[in-house]
Specification:
This protein has a single domain, classed as Jelly Rolls, CATH 2.60.120. The chain contains one helix and 13 strands, in the order αβββββββββββββ. The protein has 163 residues and is mainly β. The chain has a five-stranded mixed beta sheet with strand order 1-3-13-7-11, with no helix packed on it. Helices cover 9% and strands 36% of the residues.
Length: 163
Amino acid sequence: MKKLSALIALSLFAAAPMAFAQNGGTSCAGAVTIATGQYDADTTAAPNWMGSFGPLVSPSNDVVYTFVAPADPSVVSFAATASSYQFALYLIPSCASGAEPTPIGATATLNAPINSSNISPALVAGNTYFLAVTGTAAGGAGANGTTTINATTPVSLQSFEID
């Protein structure tokens, strides 16, 4: 009975939506791994280390998350549900300090997700990608603040072992 109770409690915990206060990283190497859940990204104290995204200028501060595309990349989605400033989310296929590649997905509108319908080229299972949170170019250098992001990046079980 104790095993069954523990299993039920574990399954309820796993099904509950997760909320993370952890902010994104302030370098490519320091990018925070993002999983399914809610994140509060804060660019207020971050540096402006990503100067552009392809042809898009980025004069404001930046934080970045990373993830590996799952076996079914069509289920990946990122949506900003609240923001205190003119935010932009850019999905990029690689990360380097300074000039970033052209985004393969982007949004600057609340509740308008980056997902398989607007990511081009499509995500490739097993490849690493980055989600940059910054301000819009039109917002200028002062476009900094907090953005709540709902992320869906399912992971698959790589191994399971009972000792």
